Prior knowledge:
Elements: H1 14-31, E1 33-37, H2 38-57, H3 60-70, H4 73-86, E2 95-102, E3 109-115, H5 127-140
Antiparallel strand pairs: 1-3, 2-3
Helix pairs in contact: 1-2, 1-4, 2-3, 2-4, 3-4
Amino acid sequence: MRHQKKTIKLGRTAEHRKALLANQVCSLIEHERIKTTLAKAKAVRPLAEKMVTLGKNGSIHARRTALAVLRQKDAVKKLFDNIAPRTATRNGGYTRIVKLGQRKSDSASVAFIEWVDAAQVEEKPTEEKSKKAKKEPTAAAPAPAAPPKEEKKPVAAEEPKPKPKRKWFGKKSGDAK
């Protein structure tokens, strides 16, 4: 029975898992938000929150403990200087996991893990919105001097060539050409 054994193993040895989680936390500190599988995000969350708690303590001992776990000086510096002071008034719950659905290649559940108090990262607008945004200012403001447009000659409609059939479909192993 697995009573009180809550370590998420992720199909890795202890050393590999420890290195993976440390690297994930360093990436989270550096980029403020990372995209990973849901299982890894759930495994990263407790370690990330422990590191923020160490950062809130701020002592030399806490800094050395964080460095022993993360093994990247710049990540520890950013954690203690930027991330921990932002969360000074918060008692836990420093990270958020946002589920994104299934990954196309292997149907693994994918999620974002991010800091709760980080600035919201906006996705880039789609092409339609950006085209509309470009058209609106030009319609509102008169064009100073537009160069003359060249006339487009009508191109004869070409019929698309049918795709060749795949020869290996529908053949039996005994058939030959």
